[in-house]
Every structure is written in C-alpha cells, then in structure tokens.
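tmp note - Methyltransferase domain-containing protein
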Amino acid sequence: MKSIDKDVLATYNSGAERNRLRTGIGLIEFERSRELLREYLPPAPATVYDIGGGYGEYAWWLSSLGYQVHLFDLAQTNIAMSTELSAEYPGCQLKAAEVADARNIDRPSGSADAVLCMGPLYHIAQREERLAALNECARLLRPGGVLCVAAITRYATLLWATTVFGAANRLLEEDAFMQMVETELRTGEHVRPADSAYRGIGRSHFHAPDELKGELSDAGFKDIKLHGVVGCGWLAPNLDALWQDDKARAAIMRAVRLLDGETDVIGLSTHLLAICQKH
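out:
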C-alpha cells in the first residue's frame, strides 16, 4: 500500500479542512451534496461510513437526521477536531470517529448501508491504489448499498487560475504552472512544481468524468450517476456575500442544478459527485 503524499497529509494535519465547506466554493459544494445525499441515501437509521470525511461536516449533519455514522479520516487533526462540531448538533453523536486509511477500514464486510468516499480518491495518485480504496468500499457495503464518491476534475486548476488572474495572481503567465496544468489535462496527474508561486494541494489525481465512471465500474459498481455539484455557480463574483442573500442563493443553486447532469459541460464543475450501487 503506497502512502499518501506527505505534503497533502501535512496540509490536513495543519487544520486546513476547518470551515472549508463554509466559505467560497465550499458553500455550494456542501449545499448541493446534501441535496443529493437526501435523494440517494437509504432512510435513517441506516448505517453510513464516512471515509475520508475530514472533521465531520457531513457526518454530524447525517447524524442529526438519525443516521448511524462512523467517521474515518487519515489526518489525526481532523479526527481530533471532529468533537468541535458536537456543539452545533446538540443531542447527536457519531457512532465512531477514527484515524484510518480509506484502503483499510476496520469494519466487517457488508456492515454499511451507505459509504461516503468524498475526499480520498483525488489524493490517491496511483490508479491501482484508487481501485483498492473503491474495492474496500465495496467490501464494506451490503448488496445494493449506496456509494457516494467525490472527485476533482482535470479542468479545475486552470479554471480557478483563470478566474483569479489579475494584479495579485499571474499564474497563467508562469511556465512551471502552465506545464503542471498541461500535464493535468493530459493525464490527470497533479504535481505541484517546486519553482512555482502556486500553493495548492500536493500530489493528487484529477479525473475526467468518463475515467471516474470507468474506475467505479472496474470496482464492480452499477447504476453510476455523475453530478457536477458546483456547476457554474462557483463562477459568481463575491460568492460569500451573495450567499447571505436568500434570493441570490436560490438563484445560484437553480443555476447549479440546471447544469448538474449535462455531460457536455459537467467538467465546468470543479467537483464531481458519483453515486452508484454495489451489485
């Protein structure tokens, strides 16, 4: 089993995940993902394993809906921080919160009604190791169980760099950055160059939509549906301010839903959510 990039793990152990889903693009990601989870998950009190679940934003929310949620994450800091969210969900508790690798979860086979794997896949650079993680999800699920997998698209870095290009950010003019982007577009491999001003996440793998579906199929999953969870909504200027306005927020989410499953432009969404079933 190959290890996760040390820079990626160090980033999460620094507490970087705290409040990620409460600002900027994370606001849309969290809102739309919760809509989709409500649609696809079996009813509570189903058992849900949230693998690579950060410090538990989804885990605690699902617990508040009556689900029996086990939270797993590779970063010790995330698991330690998970107790912070208990104050927002009085009367709720997680069944477990444990440090664990997505490829080796200490639970019996067929013990989960649903598995969330909404982080690990893009931090596992090698295809065979991603399949190992997906096979572990399949092992944990009961027959017919639901798997929800998040991925970052190959276009995400270039799209982001274009939206912030200007006086404070000249990455599009930087050869090292653009060479990284060209490699991402061609292979999905994201390797942060040492000689670049870019300070994004460490080594990762970014998916093409059909590639993600192929990996899920190879792991034995069926009825695969892809959703562009942030659609075009993340392009809205001053997103944090707009989100405080109920009418503006509703308009943004309507736009996101309109493009959610449009295969021609699904890559415009920097994040994908694949939902499928175990045979």
